[in-house]
Design a protein that fits this description.
- The chain is an alpha+beta fold and 73 residues long.
- It contains one helix and three strands, in the order H-E-E-E.
Amino acid sequence: MQVELFERHEEDTPVLSISKITRLVRKSLEKNFSQVWVRGEISNLLAHSSGHRYFLLKDSSAQLKAVFFQRDA
């Protein structure tokens, strides 16, 4: 399915604000993945002067952006 950038949406299709969609995604993730471990290769490690570590966790077909906060060290 391809949607044109400025195509009018169907009236019965909900239009969500950025705040609303991120809130819904966050609630869903917290509900369904509250206790989960993730395994992957660390890549693109960046040690920031704040003490935080920014990196990618990846496997052969996907990647997640991740942060290790200094307070958790």
